[in-house]
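worker-03 picked up job from queue 'complexes'. Input manifest follows; two sequence lines, order preserved.
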Amino acid sequence: MAIFGPIVGLRTRLQKEGLYIDPQWLMVFFLVIGSALGRFLINLNSSRKTEIAFVKNTKLRISNYFSNKGKHIAITGFLFAVAYPFLPFTDRYLLDVGIMVLTYIMLGWGLNIVVGLAGLLDLGYVAFYAVGAYSFALLSTTFGWSFWICLPLAGIFAAFAGILLGFPVLRLRGDYLAIVTLGFGEIVRIILLNWYDLTGGPDGIGGISRPSFFGLPFTNNLKEGENSFHTFFNLEYSTAHKLIFLYYLILILALVTNFFTLRIRKLPVGRAWEALREDEIACKSLGVNPTNTKLTAFAIGAMFGGFAGAFFATKQTFVSPESFTFIESAIIVAIVVLGGMGSQTGVVLAAIFLIGFTEVFRELEQFRMIAFGLAMVLIMLFKPKGILSNREPTIKLHGDKK
Amino acid sequence: MLDIKNIQTFYGKIQALRDVSIKVNSGEIVSLIGANGAGKSTLLMTVSGINKPREGVIIFEGKNIEKEEPHKIVKLGISQSPEGRRIFSKLTVEENLKLGSNIYENGRNYLNDIKEIFELFPVLSDRKTQRGGTLSGGEQQMLAIGRALMARPKMLLLDEPSLGIAPKLVNQIFVAIKNINKEKKVTIFLVEQNAKKALELADRAYVLVNGKVTIQGTGQELLKNQDIQAAYLEGGG
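worker-03 finished. Artifact:
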C-alpha cells in the first residue's frame, strides 16, 4: 500500500505556477476496499477447500466436456467467426474489435510455435511483427508492389530476422533466453526509431497501399473506365466492405497459421520441437539436431509474426515504432500462457478474453491495465496451467488391439 | 566395431575419465560396471558425442567420431537409452517411439518398427496412447529402449536399465536385451551398477573405478574374480 497509495492517490496537476498535487482519497478508498475484499475471497476459497468438492466436480465435468467436444466447439467457433461480420449486432466498432482480436489470435498462434511447442520463451516476439510490418510498408511504398507480393516477402524477411535472433540464443535456456529475446525486441524498435533514412524514425511510414480484392480496390474516387469492388459487384459504396474484407483476410491468415501448426505437429520437425521442450539431452541421444530444430521454430514462428505485421501495416496504412513496444510482446506472451501453452483453442479464448476485456473496460481509462492485471491474476489463480492445458496426441495407431 | 582409445573427459577442471580404452566387437554384449560416480554415464555420453573428450579417439566402424555432432553419431548407427530414461513425459508412448525414428525424416515406414517394439515389449502396446509420464519406471525403461531402437541402430548404448525398477521387471528387461542382441543382431554396450545381472549377461566386461578401467575379462571370469565379488557382488548386489 505504501507504494500503491501515492501512485494512485495523488494526481499531479500542471498549472502556471508549477506542479500541484491533488489527493484522490475516494479512489484510494475504493482500491483499499477492493483489494481487501479480493484478499478475503481468496482466503475464503482456500480455507474451504474440503467443502467445495462439488464445485471441483463441476469444474472437472466442464473440462471433460471441453476436451470431448473440442472439435464441435472449434467448428462452432469457426462458423461464428465466418458469420460474425453479418450478424445483426455487429457494427463498425465491433468489427474493428473483431479484426484486432483475430490479429492477436494469429500472433498468439505464431508465438505458440516458439513458446508452446518448442518451449523457447520469446519475450521479443513483437520484433518480428515489426519487421513484417516495416518490410511490408517499405516494399509497398518504395516499389509500389501489391499486397499479395509484399505479404510473402514480409513473412520471409521476418523469418530471416527469426534466424538472426535464433543463432546467438541457441545455447541459452529459460530466463537467459527470455532476457536476450526481450533485448532483441527492444533493439529492433530502437533501430526503427533511429534509422531515419530508411524507416522515417518516429514519423513512421504512411500511405501504405490497401489490399485489393483480386485487383479491385476499395475506393470511391475512381478514374474513368476503372472498376472497383462496389462497381464490379453492383453494390452501393460503403466503407464497411473494406473492413469486412480485412476481417476475412485476417481470418484466413489466422486459419492458415492454425492449420499449418496442426499439420507440422505431426511431422518429425514438429514432434522434435515438443521433445526438445521436454528434454534436450534425450533429444540429442536420439539423433534430433537441436540447432536446426530451434532455428526452424524461431523462423516459422517469426514468419507468421511477419504475416500478421504485414496485415497490420496494410490495415493501418501507417506504421511507426510506437506500435511495437514491449507491452505488445507481453500481451502476446500472456495470450499464449493464459491460453495454456501449446493449446490452439486456448489461444483463441485467451485472445478474446484479454483483448475483448481491455476493450470492454475502455471507459476505465487509466485503470484498464489494472483490470487487465486483475484478469491475469484471476486466471493464474484458478487455472494455473492456462485456460486449456490439455494436449492432444499427434498420432493414433489404429487396428491391432492385443 | 567400437574402439575407444585413451579417452580423457573433463567437466571443467574435474577429470571424469582417465585414459579409458574399451573395445566392443560386432555382435557382442559388453558390460561396464562400477560404483556411483565412477564415470560410466560420462563414457556413454562421450561415445554419443554429447560430452566431448579432451584427448583420445573413438572409432566406430573405421570412422573417428569423437568430434562428431550427436545427431550424426545416431545416423552412423549408435543410439542410446540414457540414464534416468528421460522419457518425454507429456508425449504419448507412440509419440515417444516416433521420435526415435526422427532421423529418417519421412521416408521410412515407422509403423512396422513400432510394431516390432510392441512385440518386444507387449505392455507398451497396451499403454500406447498414454502419456510417457504416467508409465511405471519399468515401462518407462522399456519405452526408452524401444525409442532408441527406433533409430535402427547397429549398436545400442544402455545406461543403467535396472535403475529404480522392480526386480521382476528387471528380469524381463534383461531378457529383452538379450533378445535384441541375438535376434535383431544389435551390438550392446551396457552400463550397470547391478553387477551380477550385467556380468551374467555380458560376453565381455570392464570395471570402471574413479574414471579408470581396472579390470577386464569375459563376463564369467569377472563373476569369479575375488575382488569383484568383494566389491560389487556380495550383499545381494
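worker-03 released lock.
Residues 47 and 219 of chain B are 22 Å apart (CA to CA).
Chain B has a mean pLDDT of 91.
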